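Researcher: Structure for this, please.
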Amino acid sequence: MPTGNESLVVKVIELIGTSQKSWEDAAANAIKAAGKTVRNITGMELKRCSARVENSKIIEYKAVVKVAFEVER
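Model: Predicted structure, token format:
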């Protein structure tokens, strides 16, 4: 966190997570994957959910998320 007169700069990226279980799990998978290469993740916004369907059954959940992280100085 910034101290004194420093200002905080946050970058937002958009990701699509997938899961065979749920939209919540798809969003969590996106955050987990981002955490492998992105530091200082501070938040996430669920933007959209969708699913792939075959034979009237959901076979894959998809979650589009916006991930916010602090930019290092």
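Researcher: Any notable elements?
Model: The beta strands are 10-19, 41-54, 57-70. Helices lie at 23-34.
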